Amino acid sequence: MGFFKRQLPMIIVSVVGFLMIVSYFSPAPFLQGMFTGANEWVQIIANFALVIGVFSLMRAHYIKIKRKEAGYGYSIVMYICLIFMTFVGLALERNIKSGGVFMWMFKWVNTPLTMTTFSLLAFYIASAAYRAFRARTFDATVMLVGALILMIGRVPLGAMLSDFVHQQITVTQIIPGLPEMAGWLLSVPAMAARRAIFLGLAVGIVATSLRILFGIERTYMGGGD
Amino acid sequence: MNIWERILQIDRRYIFLLIGISGAIPIIMSFSLPTFVTPEVRGVYNAIDALPEGAMVLVSFDYEPSAMPEMDPMAKAILRHIFGRGLKVVGVTLIPYGTGIGEELFVAMEREFNLKQGVDYDFLGYKPGYQAVVLGLGQDLKGSFPKNFYEQDTRTVPILKDINSLRDFDYMMWLHDDAYGGYGWIIYGRQNYGIDIGSGCTAILATGMYPFLQAEQVTGIVGGLKGAAEYEKLMGYTGSARLGMVAQSSIHVMIIGLILLGNIAFILSKRKPKKEPSG
Amino acid sequence: MIWHELLGIWLAAGFTLAIYSFLYKDNPAYKLAEHIYVGVSTGYLICIAYWEVIDKKVIAALGQHEWIVIIPTLMGLAMFTRFSKKASWVSRIPLAFIIGYTAGVAAPNNIQGLLIEHSYATINPVLTAGFAPQLNAIIMLLGVTCGMIYFFFSVERKGPIKVAARLGIFFLMIYFGVAYGYMVMGRESILIGRLNFLILDWIKPTLAAIGRLFGG
Fold first, then answer.
1. Using an 8 Å Cβ cutoff, are A53 and A68 in contact?
2. What is d(CA C11, CA A104) in angstroms, rounded to the nearest whole number?
3. Å from B274 to nearest chain C CA?
4. Is position C49 within any domain?
5. pLDDT in tens, B117-155
6. Where are the domains of chain B?
7. Closest chain C CA to residue B255
8. Structural domain of A197
9. Residue B15, Cβ neighbours under 10 Å: how many?
């Protein structure tokens, strides 16, 4: 039994992984066929991973209702909406198309609720910026100046402001306008820093992948035996 | 507690109110400001403009409904450009909610340009697994998507007759609000199947796309509502993105003002206690 | 305007205000809207997962006697064993397949697409460009190199390494600054979208309708 619990998953990881690596370099029809098949299989398995996420959420709310925890009425509402949406999408309307109840629900219930929930962050960001965005140190000042140049340089107001100053005080024309400054920050220094992060990330991905394939990294198997 | 300390400890709900008002006023007044076009946006526009009539464009709707206020005006401007030039579009999505978003956009475009599904455009729909979908489309498009979003056999859809892989597309427009599969379309799609990609993304993601632009892995970046406004300008109309730029400017001024006020109050509130013992 | 669109606008406006009521303080209207959101979006996921994959890929393949599709389906179903204490090890098998696949495709593609291409794109401009871009190319090379040195935690920070790491932080701070600025822009855009809806799609037409009603 121990073989199935520990060794078999490791063998599967290594065999599948190395086959994928070899198929990257080799155009052999046999390997390419296997590679194409693996893509199909992953899509189907990944779909069940999504369903498991949904299942976990439903379980959490079910437990809340069963134990009659505070606010369990909301969980009942959640279930009613879930069942209604699923009924419409699976039983009432075969195939999802514009003009049906399912898409109506998506357009007028799901979408506005998602957008509004995320737009709350605009308020909290403003409040956090007011309270915490301080030029305490040199580094923080650099960050603050970078943020301010981008924020004003990327909206029409920044361009209008720069043009106005350039027209009024001719000497300032040797200094680039705010939009140009923001563009330069984005495409040179910030891009360089982002690339440094990307390169570090790529080294990390490659190293972790190889550790997994060679069976050194096993945390994905979780705890237990 | 001096006045500056009191300013620092203001109830955050007043700040919320200020932000709400500064966004609402320009919308009520509804006027527009001149938009300037950046080279990043022109990169996408020029690439689409250079395609010959009848060229095949793949559009991936990889954004959640939460990003729709930013992404929908952009998607509309770009799709108008594509359909206006008589190019053909195949849509796809790597995320479940992309189906509703893609379907709504195609329906809108169908009305506007009098298009025919299956001839001028087709929507493949959604499959999970990010890079597995990108690689699946590259290896065997009709195997990965045996049926399109409208339940038709992809082998019988006219527009897909000669399309069997990502290689068969002339251009790809990646509309996204996240990196999905570690920049899957670029790292897996472009690299293995040589498809040219234009990136249309949310503002949050835009900063992270510049290394790909410099490495010429994308032809351009349309970033956020600002990018959408630029694209609307290139297309010669004023849509919700250009109108939104006024509200954006107004909220920016408010936030910058708040940051500056916060900093001034911070410095001044600290200065006072130092003086007190001597005085 | 068609009646179901009008109903949709009023419903969406109600939900928008219910969510925004949270800005004042947490309240039942917000909680109700939040749970409706979770329920509807989860229902949406279930339907898409069924139609787009199970129906179009699994059932359709079985209809054409492509029996091989049973294997990934069983592997997918095996993932449900993670809810059982005794049989949870079975879920390691499909997980192993996914992880092996991901690691196998990620390693070569990231080496080529990120490591090689981006290193080339960093060094090449310094060697080829004219004067003005040359300066930018040097700044970029400096930024990438110093940024990466900053992330080397296994090297002791003294002498030139310390200077380089310090410079790396400088570049990273510029990045975080502009990234923050762009993030603010993004969040604002979503807010603007909602305000646009409330004002232009809901309040203005409603006021106009009331005006017509009383103005004859």
1. no
2. 11
3. 31
4. yes
5. 999 999 999 999 999 999 999 999 999 999 999 999 999
6. 3-32+244-278, 39-237
7. C184
8. 144-215
9. 22
Substitution target from A191, A205, A208 for chain B, most B beta carbons within 10 A: A191
Is C114 inside a domain boundary? no
Is C77 near chain A, with CB under 8 Å?
yes
Q: Answer whether B135 sits within 8 Å of A194, measured CB to CB.
A: no
Residue B175's closest CA among B196, B142, B144, B197?
B197
In a domain, A207, yes or no: yes
Contact: C190, B69; criterion CB under 8 Å: yes
CB atoms within 10 A of CB C31: 16
User: Pick from A46, A107, A130: which is nearest to B258 by CB?
Assistant: A130
For range A125-150, the mean pLDDT: 91
Mean pLDDT of A181-186: 94
Asked if A26 reaches chain B (Cβ–Cβ under 8 Å), the answer is no
Pull the structure tokens for residue B213. 């632009």
For testing contact with chain A, the best of B9, B19, B36 (most A CBs within 10 A): B36
Strands (E), B32-82: 56-62
Average pLDDT, chain B: 92
pLDDT of residue A219: 83
Is A199 a member of any domain?
A: yes
Q: How far is B52 from chain A (nearest CA, A)?
A: 30
Tell me the ipTM for this assembly. Answer: 0.91
Query: For residue C61, is it within any domain?
Result: yes
Q: Do A157 and B64 touch (CB under 8 A)?
A: no
Report which of B100, B96, C19 is spatially closest to residue A53, judged by C-alpha positions: B96
- Of B33, B95, B73, the closest CA to residue B222 belongs to B73
Residue A113 forms part of a structural domain:
no
Specify the pLDDT at position B57. 98
Closest chain B residue by Cα to residue C174 = B207
CATH superfamily of B39-237: MTH777-like (3.40.50.10160)
- A42 contacts chain B (CB < 8 A): yes
Restricting to C residues 164-193, those with a Cβ less than 8 Å away from any Cβ of A are 168-185, 187-188, 190-191, 193
Q: Please give the pLDDT value at position B278.
A: 45
Q: Is residue A153 part of a domain?
A: yes
What is the per-residue pLDDT across C118-153, written as a single tens digit (0 to 9) for each?
A: 999 999 988 886 666 688 899 999 999 999 999 887
The larger pLDDT score, comparing residue A210 to residue B34, is at A210
Report if residue C16 sits inside a domain. yes
Q: A159-175, pLDDT tens digit by residue?
A: 888 888 888 888 878 88
Quote the pLDDT of residue B273. Answer: 54
Helical segments of chain B, H only: 3-8, 12-29, 39-49, 68-84, 98-113, 131-139, 141-144, 180-184, 191-193, 203-214, 224-235, 240-278
Domain hosting C11: range is: 1-65
| Alpha carbon distance C146, C153 (integer Å) | 13
Question: Number of folded domains in chain C?
Answer: 1
Q: Say how many residues make up chain C.
A: 216
CB contact under 8 A, B100 and A106: yes
Are B99 and A148 a contacting pair at CB < 8 A? no
Given CB atoms, is A39 within the 8 Å cutoff of chain B? yes
Residues of chain C with pLDDT below 50 are none
CB contact A133 to B (< 8 Å): yes
What's the domain count of chain A? 1
Reported as a single tens digit per residue, the pLDDT across A34-79 is: 999 999 999 999 999 999 999 999 999 999 999 999 899 999 999 9
Q: Is there a contact between C107 and A78 (Cβ–Cβ < 8 Å)?
A: no
